[in-house]
# Entry
Amino acid sequence: MGRLFAIEIIYRGIYQKTLASRISRAIVLAAHQEGKPGISFGRYGDSPERNGIPAKNFAIVGTDQETLEQGMAKYEPKEVDITIAVDDTLFKGVESWAWYGLQPVNKLLKPGGTLIVTSRETPEALIKMAHRKETPYQLAIVKGTPSFSGLWVYKDDHTDVRILGAIAKLLPELFSLKSVQKAIVNEWKDPVKAESAARSCERISTTEVMPNQGNPEIPYKFEFPKWHEMGEGIAIPSIPAGRAVEDPVSHATGGFRPDRNPTFKKFTTRTMRPVVNFDTCIKCTLCWLQCPDSCFDVTPEGLYDANMQACCGCGVCEAVCPVKDCVTMVNESEFGDNASQWEDWKKDKAAYKIWLEDKIKTRSERSHGFRYRGQYEEQIPEMLRIAREG
Amino acid sequence: MAQLATVLEDQRQTDETALITGSEAIAVACKLADVDVITAYPIRPYDTVMQYVSKLVSNGELDCEYIVAEGEHSQFEIVKHACAAGARVFCGSSGVGWMYAMEALTVTPALRVPMVAMVGNRALDDPGAFGVEHNDALTVRDLGWQLVWVDTAQEALDTALIAYRVSEDRRIFLPCAISCDGAFLTHSQALVQIPSQKKVNEFLPRYNRADLLLHPDNPITVAPQGNEDWVMEIRRQNYAAMERVSDVLREAYDHFERIFGRSYGNPFFEEFETDDADIVLMGMGTLSTPVKVAIRKMRKEGKKVGFVRMRWFRPFAAAELAECLSRFSAVGVVDRDYSFGSPYMSGVLATEVRSALYSAPGKKPPVVGFIAGLGGREVTVPDVERITEGVYNAAQGRPQPLTQWIGLRE
# Structure
C-alpha cells in the first residue's frame, strides 16, 4: 500500500467558504501534478453554512488510487497530516452547528503533524488558546490578518497561495513547490500568486507544541444514547423558560436570564465579542431587542449583559448602540474565558474600568466577516505587502 | 318523554342493520369512534367518504372538526398536527391524490402519529382513470404505515375500529391505511351490521398521546433536524414498533370477537376452501368475489382449488403465510398492481410472497404471478379459470412465464 495524505481546512462558515474550497482544490490539483490522485470535499453536515460557524473542508490524496480509496466515503478523516485554520480564533475550538460536539482545533492531527494558521498573533498567544494535545505537534504561522469575505465575493489577498506554498515546505512528500506553482498558474492564471507561494515556502517555520502546553480545559463530552434509550416520535424536551438573575454582591434577584441549550454553546462561533461599559449604558434596550441570538441577560438593575453562551459575535449590538464606546466589538483572541462582564463590573467597578479601557485600546483590528462597506478593499494592499515582505 | 328516552337508549345499546357502501361503512366507523378531526379533499372514489362524513356532521350525528383542505398535502398535514396534539383523526384519498400527500405520508409514521386513513384504491394517472389498482396505497409500504385491504363493507367498518385501537396503542403509534377497492367496495351498498355505541366504547379506549402530546403543559420540540448520528436509531425505533404490531393486532381481533361476536379467524389472511386444496390462488381486496365464485364452480368440476386473501399487507405475516402455503403444490398470486422491472416482472404481492417463502423452513411451492384487473377492469370467472390452469401447470412442473397478464386484449 502507498501513503495516504489527509489535510483539513477549518474555516468560518460563509465568510471563508471560497477561501477554504480554493485551498482544498489546489492541494489536490498540485498533488495531481505529481501523478497522485485525490479528492476534495466539504464536511457534509456543515452545509447549509451559517455565518461564522466553524466548518471544514478536506483534501485527501493517495500515492495511488487504491490507497486513496481508504480515505474516501467518509464525512471526516479520523486523523490528518496537516490542519489549516484560516482564522486564528478557531484555536478556541471547532463546534459545528450540526453538533459533533466541541473539537479542539488540533484534535485530528497525527502525532508530529502540523497546524498551519493565518494570524498576526505570536506562537505563545496562539498555543495558549488551543486545547492541550497528548502528542507533540508543529505550529506554523502564515503571518497575516485572517482573510474574511462573503458568500458572493472573494478577497484575493494571496492567503490561499501562501498556505499552499507553506505546505510544499512542511510536507514535501505531498507535493513540491514546483508542482503547486504549476497548479496555481493553471487554476488562477496569475504568476504573481505563484511568486507569493514561493516566498511563503521559503519563509515558513515551525514551533513545536508540547503536551503540557495549551488550554488544560477538557472539552464538553457526551455519550450518544442507544436507540431504545431515546424518546420516540422525534420529540425532544424543550429548553425551559429562564429565571431571575442574582446580583453577585447584594444577592438581590431580578431581571431575566433565558435558559439556554445546555449542550450547544457559542464559545467557538465568535471572532469578536462585545465589551460593555455599564457606567455609560442608558438602558435604551436596543442591543437586547436587536440581538439575533437573544444573548443579552437582563440584570436586576435593568442593564444588559452579553452572555457568552449565546453570543455569536455578529456586532449588531455595537451597531445599534447610541452611546459612544458603550458597546465595543473586540477581537476574541483577547479573552481567556467566557465570564459575565456584568458580574466582574459589580464586584469591582474601578478594576473593570481599567480592564475595559485596556481591551478597547489594545484591540487588534479585525473583522467578524463584514463590518463596513469597503473594508475588504482596504485590507488587500496590506496583505499583499505582507505576502511580499513577510 | 320517559318512554322515548328508553327507546333511544335501547337503540344506543343494540346493533342495527343498514344497507350502506364500503365508504359509508368507514364514515359510520368514524362516528362510532367519535373522531375529533377529519380533513377532506375530493377525489374519486375516496370522495364518497367525505360526503357521508359531512352528512353525519350536518345531521348532528358526529361532533368533529371537519376541514376541507385546499389539497391533499394540507389535508394530511392538518390531521398529522391535530393527532400530535391529541386528537383522534381520520382522512383519506385516492390515486394521485394520495401521491400529492406523499411528503405528509412520509413524515407521519416517522413522527409516530397514529392517523387512520382510507385509501379508495384508484389507478394512478396517466391516463386519468377512476378504476381500482393497488399501486396508490402500496407506495407507502416501506415507510411504517400499517396497510390493510378489506373486501366487504362490514369488514371496512370493523377494520376501521380495529385500526384505531391498534394504531393508537402506545406500543405502536403508527398510522394505518385501510384500502378499499374503488367502485366494487366504495360505491356498492351491502347489508352491514352496525354495532352499538356501547360495544364500541367498550372496545375502543380514548386516544392518549401521553408523553408525546404537543401541548403547552408538555413543552417539546417535534421533528428537529438530525444528522447521521441520530437517524439510524430513530429508524430502529419504528422497526421495533412495526415488529410489535402483530401481537397487538391479534389482541385487538380477539377482543373484537369477544365484544362484537364476529370472528375474522386469522387476522392477517383469510383462507377459503384451503383444507383439502391442491393449489391456491392469492390476492387482495374485492378480487375475492370472482375468485370465490370461480372456485365454487371449479370444485364442482373436481378441481381442488383454494384461495388465500391477504388482509394485512403491513405488517406482512411472512412466517405464518409461508407455513400455510407449504401445504400446496403451487401458488398463483393475482396482483391488481404492477412493479415494472421487479424480479420476474411480477406484481408487488407476488414478489413479497416469493420473498416470504424463500427463507421459510418448509416446502416452497412454485409461485406464478398474474397481473389482472388493472384500472378497474373486471376480473371474471373465466379469467380466474385461466389463472387456475396456469397454476396447475406450475404444480406439474410445466415451464411457463413467471408473470402472466390476464384479461388483456391480445
User: Anything to note?
Assistant: The first helix of chain B runs from residue 2 to 13.
